[in-house]
Design goal:
Largest sheet: none
Number of domains: 1
Number of helices: 2
Shape: rod-shaped
Radius of gyration: 26 Å
Number of strands: 0
């Protein structure tokens, strides 16, 4: 495990301390779980952004291919 020093806004610290007292969890465990959860959310957002970019690239290429097929149909007529 890594040790780190952390500065929190007073309001975040106070709210966290109140919750920790109610849920009977250590501050360290709570912060680890919170960061793990937040990391998962950020990973999903990054994947979503990559999929959107890839989808745009494929979409543009698909439109080009569609136009080529339309031109072939015009040629056969």
């Amino acid at each position: 495990m890594k040790t780190l020093s952390l500065k929190l806004d007073n309001s975040v610290f106070e709210e966290t301390e109140q919750l920790l007292d109610k849920i009977q969890k250590t501050r360290n465990r709570y912060i680890n779980e919170a960061l793990h959860y937040y990391n998962q959310i950020q990973k999903k957002k990054l994947i979503e952004q990559m999929l959107i970019q890839d989808s745009k690239l494929v979409s543009e290429e698909s439109i080009k291919v569609l136009h080529e097929f339309e031109n072939l149909e015009d040629y056969d007529s």
